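for the recovery benchmark. tokens below, seq after
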């Protein structure tokens, strides 16, 4: 009976305030905070190093998108660190983590389109190709064998963009509702959290499906130098780890494995485990992102500019052939809307 009352008391206890939390912290808590501080510093150092490289070496077309994507990891690391220091900030940390990932996913989509030189250039390069709908996670063989490939047009690219863009919009609205519930009454948030999970999961599946179709469409002509699948996976792991570990630690609370040492409740222990793992993983993911983005990429949009170098060869050839009409040769240079330089030679008799 005492055991039952103890568990019931722990379940009903609120998450402690900062003074209560710090008063119950021992040498293990101090060690954990110290290691967490070191982890945040490492993430920030790697982020700044990668950002400097991108600003210095990347094309102006992709700088902003690349910087935003690699900025997801320090944002998640910082809010996770604050959730370790302030137990009641866990839900806010979870919401910011989710929002940072969703916004980063859309920026990654924009980065892949920018690698192609924009939507118009993407459509021109893909044609006469088609978009395959039968990719993971929403539509794979044999479930969707009846879906035909569709022609790549401007509307097709816009639909792909909307599939990814709904991620930050839907997720932001859902977590706004959850935060309002939590502010009104914590029990109201806990009761309704599970009911909103299907909306979150469906939104994530459609967003990941849109990104998977985009990568499948572009990998045929962009090549392996752009490392699109690894960049997508490293970013996606932020969400996968946050969701899986969050569910696992909540499961530990439900089955009464974690201890209850008031004011530190099983929920606080679970959040502490989750946030500690997330900090360590952000260090690893930021390191992987640093390796992926600190690379010289071929400038896809500059093909054709090398035509200028052939003018000297043309002139030399004409001189060697003692062409007396060289004075009647007109060379015209022009720049089209895509930034390509066109060369026209006009020979008058």
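predicted aa per position
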């Amino acid at each position: 009976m005492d055991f039952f009352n103890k568990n019931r008391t722990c379940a009903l206890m609120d998450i402690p305030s900062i003074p209560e939390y710090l008063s119950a912290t021992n040498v293990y808590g101090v060690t954990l905070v110290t290691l967490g501080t070191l982890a945040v510093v490492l993430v920030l150092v790697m982020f700044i190093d990668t950002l400097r490289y991108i600003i210095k070496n990347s094309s102006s077309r992709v700088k902003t998108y690349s910087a935003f994507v690699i900025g997801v990891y320090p944002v998640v690391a910082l809010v996770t660190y604050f959730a370790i220091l302030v137990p009641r900030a866990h839900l806010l940390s979870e919401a910011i983590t989710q929002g940072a990932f969703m916004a980063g996913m859309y920026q990654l989509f924009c980065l892949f389109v920018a690698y192609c030189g924009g939507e118009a250039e993407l459509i021109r390069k893909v044609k006469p190709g088609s978009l395959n709908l039968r990719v993971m996670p929403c539509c794979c063989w044999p479930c969707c064998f009846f879906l035909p490939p569709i022609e790549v047009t401007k509307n097709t690219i816009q639909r792909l963009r909307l599939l990814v863009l709904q991620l930050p919009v839907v997720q932001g609205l859902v977590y706004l509702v959850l935060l309002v519930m939590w502010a009104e009454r914590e029990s109201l948030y806990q009761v309704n959290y599970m009911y909103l999970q299907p909306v979150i999961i469906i939104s994530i599946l459609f967003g990941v499906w849109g990104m998977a179709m985009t990568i499948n469409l572009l990998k045929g002509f962009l090549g392996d130098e752009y490392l699109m699948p690894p960049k997508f996976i490293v970013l996606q792991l932020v969400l996968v780890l946050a969701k899986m570990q969050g569910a696992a630690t909540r499961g530990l609370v439900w089955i009464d494995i974690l201890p209850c040492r008031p004011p530190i409740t099983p929920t606080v222990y679970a959040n502490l485990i989750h946030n500690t793992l997330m900090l360590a993983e952000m260090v690893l993911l930021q390191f992987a992102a640093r390796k992926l983005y600190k690379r010289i990429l071929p400038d896809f949009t500059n093909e054709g500019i090398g035509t200028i170098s052939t003018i000297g060869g043309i002139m030399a050839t004409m001189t060697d052939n003692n062409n007396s009409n060289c004075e009647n040769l007109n060379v015209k240079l022009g720049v089209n809307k895509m930034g390509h330089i066109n060369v026209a030679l006009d020979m008058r008799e």
